[in-house]
Amino acid sequence: MSDRVETLRWRAGRLELIDQRRLPARVEFVACATAQEVARAIRDMVVRGAPAIGCAAAYGIALEAARMKDTTPAVFASGMERAFEVLAAARPTAANLFWALERMRAVLRGGGQIPSTELRTGSGQGSPADTAGRLLEEAQRIVSADIAANRAMGAHGAALLADRARVFTHCNAGALATAGHGTALGVIRSAVAAGKRVSVIVDETRPFLQGARLTAWELQQDGIPVTLITDSMSGHLMSRGEIDAVIVGADRIAANGDVANKIGTYMIAVLARRHGIPFYVAAPLSTLDASLDNGGAIVIEEREASEVRGHAGVEWAPAGVAVRNPVFDVTPAELVTALITEKGVVRAPDRGKIAALLA
Amino acid sequence: MSDRVETLRWRAGRLELIDQRRLPARVEFVACATAQEVARAIRDMVVRGAPAIGCAAAYGIALEAARMKDTTPAVFASGMERAFEVLAAARPTAANLFWALERMRAVLRGGGQIPSTELRTGSGQGSPADTAGRLLEEAQRIVSADIAANRAMGAHGAALLADRARVFTHCNAGALATAGHGTALGVIRSAVAAGKRVSVIVDETRPFLQGARLTAWELQQDGIPVTLITDSMSGHLMSRGEIDAVIVGADRIAANGDVANKIGTYMIAVLARRHGIPFYVAAPLSTLDASLDNGGAIVIEEREASEVRGHAGVEWAPAGVAVRNPVFDVTPAELVTALITEKGVVRAPDRGKIAALLA
């Protein structure tokens, strides 16, 4: 089902990204030929969603390598270094971006066996052309593995949803946030494929409106019943007994299980706990960041004020009003009923269980 | 300060309402000459905010009486009956609408001393022209009393705010929601007038954007520092220690202290409690509805889907997506730190304290 949505595709040596700023009004693709162009597409939200950002960044490295494959090893090495830097600087919060770049760097280093001093001088194994080929293969493996992880999460998570469950989700953790199938929406898709009559409620997710524009559209494509509300309404629906479960994705998960996800997630988690509604987080292991002790250490990106003042060039706030625009928040692990990963469902995630997952 | 904003004004025998659908882009007034026109202005949100709706409805009755003052008592009586019906049907949740109509009906009945059977036949005291005069005076008393109540609330409530308090508010409970000064924003204005350096954070309040369009604009007019966020961000700011107090208005308060207010209020109250942040409700006694045992009995209006699909004629949601649009929610009394009324501050409001207020 989710194969109807092509978030990213490799065509004639270029990365094509569905333009998520234009959906659902227009289905258009942006083609990228360089790491710089991929970084800009990530920064400008042509592509968003932590796993999709990771996949795009991997292709960004592959593109840059292909572009430079006929240069000398030294020129190639320094060009690749710049590509890693520009991609790493594109957005700060998505763990998968840094995870994917780390995987690509290991291939550049020759499977991690070549000392980094040799990398600097281009003395790693093989010619730039050989390395470029291996980097493209690795990017394609990352993409395939992401889809496989989402399908595994879907299979594990579908068991958590009852027939006729009314599932609330926030933002877009769907095919559009990944290489395909989706994390949170992947669980819903898998439940539907298993014959469960699941319906979805999604909030619009200001300011970028991923819920209204992307999740509602994705689910419509698949014929899964979806109802749109504003970001202020989920608590009311919970209080009226109209939501049976919450599933969201994640942008970064700390070693203790604290979850950074789209701004607003934390409020939903607090309300779900108050109403005894299970709050599930679906995320691949590539979203786990064992280097961060807890959620307080997660960098929260603040984006430009214009996003909050209006939408798509139309401003409704009074001119000159001050704005805050943090785009993620942190949900403490204690509010997470279960973490759904490709390795299985982890109930009441904590430091020990996260470490075991990564072992 | 708040006198700069004219929510409603009586000009040359007509009611002029600032068009709150157009603010802040344009400051325009809509003139109403009949009860029907006032009812439409209330329904279409030219005027909104429970106290302002009450004032507008009172003028609506006065307008209709003036229009019919030269008819026979019987024609006058039946015309007035229709005016009450059309105004009462304009919006269901604001208690002040029904409270103001009740006050106007008492004047129509001749101070409540005339049996309603006599009203039906137009046998109440005085001619239609006399009654029309008394009805206009009553409408003007309602408006003056609303401003006076707001100033009293401001004086009582200002003491609750510390110097340099960062106060969060939702929707618009300002001059634009009342005849002047405002309820929640009235408390803030009075604190500022008393020399406290209060700053305000307001969320945009989708779908009608009262926070972004009205509260931000009102506070800018007064030079009170204001920062705009989306509806999903207040929990994050609370978790980071960036909000010292929450003040909101109310549309209806049940006998046990449960508060119906703009959708989203409940989520904010739950988050404030979690973070130990005081949650204040500022509302005149005319918002209290002793006839309702608790908040579960409050009628929650659902408005049209187009409001959620986009804004001001621009739709960003996919065509045909299902929508829910409840425009109020209920905050249980246990989450209210204090109710600020013109009679004083009621901490931890409950059934007994509400009854005492109304005694």
Describe this protein's structure:
2 copies of one chain form a homodimer. In chain A, helix 1 (35-43) packs parallel to helix 3 (73-88) and helix 2 runs antiparallel to helix 3. The relative contact order of chain A is 0.12. Chain A is an alpha/beta fold and 359 residues long. In chain A, 40% of the residues lie in helices and 17% in strands. In chain A, the strands form 4 sheets. A 7-stranded mixed sheet of chain A has the order 6-5-4-7-10-16-17. Chain A has a 4-stranded mixed sheet with strand order 11-8-9-15, covered by helices on one side. The radius of gyration of chain A is 20 Å and the shape is globular. Chain A has helices at residues 35-43, 50-67, 73-88, 95-108, 116-120, 128-158, 184-193, 210-222, 234-239, 265-274, 306-309, 351-358; strands at residues 8-11, 14-18, 29-32, 166-169, 199-203, 226-229, 245-248, 252-254, 259-262, 279-282, 288-289, 310-311, 314-315, 322-323, 328-331, 338-341, 344-347. At the A-B interface, helix 8, strand 6, helix 9, helix 10 and strand 14 of A face helix 8, strand 6, helix 9, helix 10 and strand 14 of B. Strand 6 of chain A pairs parallel with strand 14 (322-323) of chain B.
Would you spell out the secondary-structure blueprint of this structure?
The structure is a homodimer of 359-residue chains.
Chain A: E1 8-11, E2 14-18, E3 29-32, H1 35-43, H2 50-67, H3 73-88, H4 95-108, H5 116-120, H6 128-158, E4 166-169, H7 184-193, E5 199-203, H8 210-222, E6 226-229, H9 234-239, E7 245-248, E8 252-254, E9 259-262, H10 265-274, E10 279-282, E11 288-289, H11 306-309, E12 310-311, E13 314-315, E14 322-323, E15 328-331, E16 338-341, E17 344-347, H12 351-358
Parallel strand pairs in A: 4-5, 4-7, 5-6, 7-10, 8-11, 10-16
Antiparallel strand pairs in A: 1-2, 2-3, 8-9, 9-15, 12-13, 16-17
Helix pairs in contact in A: 1-2, 1-3, 2-3, 2-4, 2-6, 4-6, 6-7
